[in-house]
Design goal:
heterodimer; A: 827 residues; alpha/beta; FAD/NAD(P)-binding domain; Arc Repressor Mutant, subunit A; 5-stranded parallel β-sheet; 25 helices; globular; B: 133 residues; mainly beta; Rieske Iron-sulfur Protein; 4-stranded antiparallel β-sheet; 12 strands; 0% helix; binds siroheme; binds flavin-adenine dinucleotide; binds iron/sulfur cluster; binds FE2/S2 (inorganic) cluster; FAD/NAD-linked_Rdtase_dimer_sf (chain A); nitrite reductase activity (chain A); assimilatory sulfite reductase (ferredoxin) (chain A)
Chain lengths: 827, 133
């Protein structure tokens, strides 16, 4: 045992938000001898979470920040009073003595003192609890009004819009995002947002909210009135300095706990950090300066002399699918601007009067140059201004070669190019490793493209090899096969791989060959590449039998066909079940029964449902205008047309779709790879949803499309996905992994930014024109039927290892060790 | 390299069963033959060689191995079970993902264009192929 000369000191942190959490994390990491004992008092009941990504809560994203082992965090126990003389903070549950107190209480949303602001239906937008309450109330309501057209207001508007509410944004300044962008940028932003169907009111002030019990109207100072079911206040934030004020600490002129460059308040034992602090005469409403303060205080407590370096107020957002970025000064001695009304891109760089130094800038509509530009702030530009501003594709705005070593790549975490390059030299081989060892990219994520670029420039090969047989990725193999016109696996593996393949690469190559050449998927060598499901055109089950799923396009089926399915199931003793995708599954078929079953089904007009393939599965539909009193378009008709158009299309993973006849969304289209929801004016197209392992909602891609444009977009979307996605990557993951995400997809399929549209259209036309039902082709050819036998040397002997028993009146695999499901019914 | 040790006890104990004509074996795919009442998977690999091993996937008990994808891992010719994708060395029957598990392999010969599989009359194995000496 050793005797410690200095007793541990006790640090109490008030506030478990982003900055408080960062402070504790940093102190814990650096306080190697455990000199400081830490208690955190937290008002919110949830463990610390990432407020910057708050809006992603709607997507089900896990926002939690890292756990802090060994730290006592008192959730749901806010500090109520502070006694500076006794060095005690008290809560309703107890008193906490401290040696050092760190205030990290953040801000509260400012709600203008308008009458009616307490009515049900008025919300703020700051915490997860706020969002949960808003989502619960707003879903299914007609109109919502967001008060405030700044960064927060637009995020809140985005949320309302996504909740299906007709959304208005009211901003009292003459432009949107007055704090971040200039007039021209604000005007361009407004156009983008109006394109999406939101209504923008600038230069207007809400003066009164009326309603009985619940909000029903917003009245403006100019006398105008808007109907509203929901109002969200996002009119800015104010520092939470009440605790400090009551204790007698010095505050800033406009609020905020005043601190010196070491983040110390007027009491030497008390620090304040984050949004509640006023430092250098400013209160910062962004997380990066807060993190810098957290690091300063951690350093000070460990005997260091760090000081606050000044805050970066750069912002980049993607709001309603519109990129907006602003950094440094937005006005200055010399401007270079770029405006393109066609693509709705606006960009401006602010330069020093000798045009040598970048002082700031504003980007609207395309912010791909943001990471590079921000890293150059205060230094020379890496190239001629216009080449940096032209929209992506026109040049390479993201090269890092021109950046100096001290350029800050990650402004959220103050990580320079040198630090990242050093980490790469020390063995960080991918983005995840760089994030783990430098923290770059862990907050807003906008610097990740630059981190990737640095990895690539350092010669680090991104892991992309498909398997031991191919160093290439699926996407590269696709291009090789397409461009070189390769038609067999042997040819491909001889020239571009090694060995003879495996269960990973062979099905991938089979799928690419199917997409590039069409034709029967089991002909010649291709048959040997297929997984058993594709090989036998049925799905393998746990006991080695197969299931049969005939196509029922859109879920619509005649009584005659239903009867046929029933008869087939009865005659072959199959187990039947309605699937989750509006069709009927016949299970328990032996290999040798498959052709006989399909003969009956094909004769009755059925065809393969491709339930076995990595292929288009179903386009689910609701009854729509055909029957439903709410339907506004023929959802069944469209679903059937789409299912027939895309049937048989082979893809990197299965593709599912749905069409709903109105916004009630009974077909659950937003949980599909592509989902369509009818509107009065046409169709809204949503892309990139799925259920399953990691459920994701599809995002709105385009509104009020006519059927022809809709089909064109879906054609291109599917073909672009098929060409470029990784193996077993659903569309959601594909979009997520893509630089530029859904915006990039939009650029390719709507604006034809890569000049690919013609090719994609032609590839789809080729698919649609060459479709043949796989089961019909199989039945028509005795050679192809040869593989459907139990034993090559005893085709009449059924496999004795397959046996059934009866459960709820249907056959199921025997002796699979299943237990009856008991529901706790009293005996 | 894996040393294949073949121990043979009196040849009388091997009974040859015809599976199918060699030309009916699709390259890099399997078929199932019934050999003395036991389902045996017979594979033809890319270089024309034929291997035979138990058709029952020991991990799930279903008789499915012949329907797996044939390929290579390193130098080993392999099949991946279609059920849960366990990979087996066709030469030794050893599961490369779980080396404790070894499938029985069967001798194969070609007679008049017919592929024949050597069945075992006695449990205990007259022809036993084991890896790693
Ligand atoms: C028939 C069906 C559509 C179809 O053709 O597939 C359908 C039809 C209707 N749905 Fe639905 N829903 C149908 C499955 C669904 C599903 C999918 C599911 O459950 O599998 C959903 C999404 C999941 C869910 O429950 O949220 C769904 C979410 C809704 C909603 C939205 C509910 C919500 O809280 O958001 C409504 C509107 C409402 O009730 O407020 C709705 C309302 C309706 C009503 C009752 C609208 C009405 O008030 O008239 C529709 C009846 C039409 C009519 O006149 O017959 N239906 N509806 C589906 C019947 C399924 C059934 O088993 O009977
Ligand atoms: C929707 C939204 C989007 C944003 N987007 C961005 C962005 O893109 N980029 C960016 O830089 N910033 C963004 N911000 C701002 C960013 O979230 C804040 O700058 C950051 O969270 C500040 O951290 P903080 O710890 O100072 O405050 P907070 O994260 O607010 O944490 C303060 C915590 O202290 C608690 N607390 C208050 N009083 C007490 C008390 N008496 N006792 C105990 N606990 C108390 C509060 O409940 C809260 O949990 C966004 C904010 C929101 C709401
Ligand atoms: S989505 Fe609309 S049209 Fe379709 S069934 Fe539901 S309520 Fe009716
Ligand atoms: S700049 Fe925000 S995470 Fe790097």
């Amino acid at each position: 045992m050793s005797i410690d000369s200095s007793p541990p000191t006790r640090v109490v942190v008030v506030g478990n938000g982003m900055v408080g959490h960062r402070f504790v994390e940093s102190l814990r990491a650096r306080d190697e001898d455990g000199r400081h004992e830490v208690v955190v008092l937290a008002e919110e009941r949830r463990p610390a979470y990432d407020r910057v990504r708050l809006s992603e809560w709607f997507d089900g994203t896990d926002l939690s920040l890292a756990d802090l082992p060994g730290v006592e965090v008192r959730l749901g126990e806010p500090a109520r009073a502070l006694d500076l003389a006794a060095r005690v903070v008290s809560t309703s549950d107890g008193e906490y003595r401290y040696d050092t107190l760190v205030l990290a209480t953040g801000s509260y949303p400012f709600v203008p003192p308008v009458p009616g602001r307490d009515l049900a239906g008025c919300f703020t937008y700051r915490t997860v609890d706020d969002l949960a309450a808003l989502a619960g109330y707003a879903a299914g309501r007609g109109t919502g009004i967001v008060v405030g057209g700044g960064l927060l207001g637009l995020e809140a508007a985005n949320a309302l819009h996504r909740l299906g509410v007709a959304t208005h944004v009211v901003e009292f300044a003459p432009r949107l995002m007055p704090a971040q962008v200039d007039d021209a940028g604000g005007a361009m932003l407004r156009r983008h947002i109006e394109d999406l169907g939101l209504t923008v009111h600038t230069g207007r002030t809400a003066s009164r909210i009326t309603g009985t019990g619940e909000v029903s109207q917003v009245v403006f100072e100019d006398g105008g009135v808007l109907h509203a079911d929901v109002v969200v206040f996002a009119a800015g934030v104010r520092p939470r300095d009440d605790l400090a004020r009551a204790a007698g600490l010095t505050l800033g002129a406009r609020g905020g706990v005043r601190v010196d460059e070491a983040c110390r308040t007027s009491d030497p034992h008390v620090y304040a950090i984050g949004e509640c602090a006023e430092i250098g005469g400013r209160v910062y409403g962004l997380v990066a300066p807060g993190y810098a303060m957290a690091e300063v205080v951690a350093d000070r407590l460990l005997g260091g002399t760090a000081t606050f370096p000044g805050g970066d107020t750069s912002t980049k957002l993607k709001l309603l699918g519109v990129d907006v970025a602003s950094f440094g000064e937005t006005a200055g001695p010399l401007d270079v601007t770029f405006t393109d009304p066609a693509t709705r891109v606006y960009a401006k760089l602010v330069l020093s009067d000798d045009a040598r130094t970048l002082l700031g800038g504003v980007l609207v509509g395309d912010a791909s140059a943001y990471p590079t530009l921000r890293a150059c702030l205060g230094g020379p530009l890496p190239g001629p201004p216009l080449s940096l501003l032209a929209p992506a594709g026109a040049g390479d705005p993201s090269g890092t070669g021109g950046l100096s070593g001290t350029a800050q790549i990650c402004s959220c975490n103050a990580v320079t190019k040198d630090t990242i390059v050093a980490a790469i030299h020390d063995g960080c081989a991918d983005v995840a490793a760089v994030k783990a060892c430098t923290r770059a990219g862990t907050t807003c994520g906008s610097c990740v493209p630059l981190v990737k670029q640095l990895l690539a420039e350092s010669g680090v090969a991104m892991p992309k090899a498909l398997c031991e047989h191919f160093d290439a990725s699926r996407r590269e193999l696709f291009d090789i096969i397409r461009v070189r016109g390769i038609r067999t696996f042997s040819e491909l593996v001889a020239a571009h791989g090694q060995g003879r393949g495996c269960d990973i690469c062979k099905p991938v190559v089979a799928s690419i060959l199917a997409s590039t050449g069409g034709g029967y998927i089991l002909d010649g060598e291709q048959g040997a590449l297929q997984d058993t499901n594709d090989h036998l055109l049925a799905n393998i089950q746990r006991n080695g039998t197969y299931s049969v799923v005939p196509r029922i396009p859109g879920g619509e089926i005649t009584p005659e066909k239903l009867i046929t399915i029933g008869e087939v199931a009865r005659d072959f003793r199959l187990y039947t079940k309605i699937t989750g995708a509006q069709r009927i599954d016949l299970l328990g078929a032996r290999v040798e029964q498959l052709p006989q079953i399909w003969r009956r089904l094909v004769d009755a007009g059925f065809e393969s449902g491709h339930a076995y393939g990595k292929a288009v599965r179903t386009v689910k539909s609701c009854v729509g205008t055909t029957w439903c009193r709410y339907g506004v378009q023929d959802s069944v008709g469209l679903a059937i047309a789409l299912e027939l158009r895309y049937r048989g299309l082979r893809s990197p993973h299965k593709i599912k779709a749905a069409v709903s006849g109105c916004a009630r969304e009974c077909a659950e289209a937003r949980s599909k790879d592509f989902g369509i929801i009818a509107t009065d004016a046409g169709w809204n197209l949503y892309l990139g949803g799925n259920g399953g392992f990691r459920p994701r909602h599809a995002e709105l891609f385009a509104s009020d499309l006519d059927t022809e444009s809709l089909v064109r977009y879906v054609d291109r979307f599917l073909m672009y996905y098929i060409r470029t996605a990784d193996r077993l990557q659903r569309t959601a993951g594909w979009i997520e992994a893509m630089d530029g995400g859904l915006e990039h997809v939009r650029a390719v399929i709507v604006d034809d930014a890569l000049g690919l549209a013609g090719e994609l259209d032609a590839a789809m036309a080729e698919h649609v024109g060459s479709y043949v039902d796989e089961w019909r082709s199989t039945l028509d050819d005795p050679d192809r039927l040869g593989r459907f036998v139990s034993f090559v040397n005893a085709p009449d002997v059924p496999d004795p290892s397959i046996a059934f028993e009866v459960e709820r009146g249907q056959p199921v695999p025997a002796g699979a060790g299943r237990q009856p499901v008991m529901l706790g019914v009293p005996r | 390299m894996t040393a294949a040790v073949v121990r043979e006890t009196p040849a009388v104990a091997v009974e040859w069963t015809a599976a199918c004509p060699y030309r009916c074996l699709e390259p890099e795919r399997g078929v199932v033959a019934l050999v003395g009442g036991v389902p045996v998977a017979v594979f033809r690999v890319h270089d024309g060689r034929v291997y035979a091993l138990d058709n029952i996937d020991p991990f799930c008990g279903a008789s499915v191995l012949a329907r797996g994808i044939v390929g290579t891992r390193g130098d080993a010719p392999t099949v991946a079970s279609p059920m849960h994708k366990h990979v087996f060395d066709l030469r030794t029957g050893r599961c490369l993902d779980d080396p404790e598990v070894v499938l029985r392999t069967y001798p194969v010969r070609l007679r008049d264009g017919l592929v024949e599989v050597g069945g075992l009359l006695q449990v205990g194995g007259l022809v036993e192929v084991s890896g790693q000496g």
